[in-house]
Fold this protein.
Amino acid sequence: SGGFCALAGDLGAQLVLAEAGTSATLGAEARVDAWLETYNGGVSAGVINTGKTMRNASFPKEWNTDPYVLAPQALPELKVDTSVTGVGKLGWDRHEGIVTQNIFGPYDARLLRRTFTTLGQTVHFRAGSPPSMYAKWTAFLAAHPGSWSTLTKCPTQTILENGAWQMRVRAESKSSASSGAALVLSGSGDPGYHFTAAGVAEVGLCLAGHTKGCLRASAPGGVAPPMTALDPRAMRERLEAVGLLRVSTGSEAGSVPTSPASLIV
């Protein structure tokens, strides 16, 4: 899997865990939050059709609420989450402020937990967005004529070129909330089409041995999220080199939102 729903968050999570200096192994639990702050682009037909298929599919009801439905063979002690996204309809994060669901959260969260457990990592994970993401997205679409009519189809050329995305990923040791790291991943172009298409191609090039050093030495085979098989540092360098990704350090300093008593995560 190498589309936007998997690659951006999966790569960001592994990079920020390394930046925070935590192994996230048993006995060294970590927390990782992935906040999609900007999504200026269309909604891919693949996402739309996946949603339709899920609504019409027949499967056990508990799968809807199982955070580890894509990691059924994971060790029980690695399954530390009880919520799919870790974010309700409205919540509060001490860094991000008010947060809510993001449109890709249920996909990202399940895929990333497959990576965490495959790598033997004990991670409490949340995936969401600040409400401002939806306001910016609406304004972006309104500023580009024809974007609404093509929202669930192939986007217009203008959307493809002028789109953008940004995700802020934070990691900290569960035993020491005062320490941690944050990275901001971003890119230009429609994320659902430009990043997805090029990202899948880059993953393929890596798997085919055309990108030096990008495969993990002990990578398992089969169908899996990208970071179970790819080396995070090498993949970051490759995606930055081809202009698909920018990574910057997200400052943990500055003003911290004051938590309203009515909002609890």
Summary: The chain has seven helices and seven strands. Confidence is low (pLDDT under 50) at residues 252-265. Helices lie at 4-20, 45-56, 105-118, 132-142, 157-162, 191-207, 232-241.
